[in-house]
Amino acid sequence: MSEEAEEHDCDCPPEGLPAYMGTFADLMSLLMCFFVLLLSFAEMDALKYKMVVKSLDDAFGVQREIAANEIPMGTSIIAQEFSPGEPRPTPLREIRQDTMDETRDTLKVKLDAEEAAKKVAEKVAEEIAQEAEKFKEALKEEIKEGLIDVETELNRIVIRIREKGSFPSGDARMNRAFIPIVDKIAAVLIRTEGQIAVAGHTDNVPINTPRYRSNWELSTSRATSVVHELLRHGELPPNRFVLEGYADTQALAPNDSNENRARNRRVEIIVLKSTMVDDVSGSIEALTTGSDAVETEVSPTN
User: What is the pTM of this model?
Assistant: First the structure.
């Protein structure tokens, strides 16, 4: 068989690329141009990108400064997400991590502040009890006669002047025989610190006289008479006093008997000792919010 016949009988593919490759190449070129155009038309929202980055920074920020060889641990059971901060090159070979202000160790600060407030409250209660004993010692005869009661209520000392022997019925002019007793009270008040509130109280029996139109005027006038007598010697500053009249709105007992109505007719001298406790309670918030973030240095260990 000749060589030409052998070549004719060979089942070989035709020379050159297949016919479909032209169409495929055109399609790929068109797709590439399409995506290039999409990319050229796209715009970057820088503000939204910064907001996303800030949100991620707050969510995965460092809670506190830790050594590099320790597992991060939270300052409370609520803080559970931690990640190392951005590393910063330093020639001192020291590892530093920044802490965020809102992730301070506030639990310890609050506990310390509450403990301090508790101690001050106990100190104030002890001081009130000691000063109440001074009043009881100075007025022991009047207390035995039932003219005066001395009590302590929370952060205050209450000196309760009963109507018996102090004021005539339906009148706010103090009996002259009772003035020395008020002078004894003033002598102890001079040595006692705190705001002084003088409050008048009556029973529920209505009154309507040319001098007093109602129990409101009677209770306020009786309190005013006590304040004038306390200020008569000029040793107590007037700015320590607060004058109050309650009529029958704050009864000690129901006005259903003569004995209870007599108990409700009274003038109370109240020594307020709440200043120290209020100062410490107000400082708790300052302690929990006023401390700054702390940056510490941790040396690597081998």
Answer: 0.53
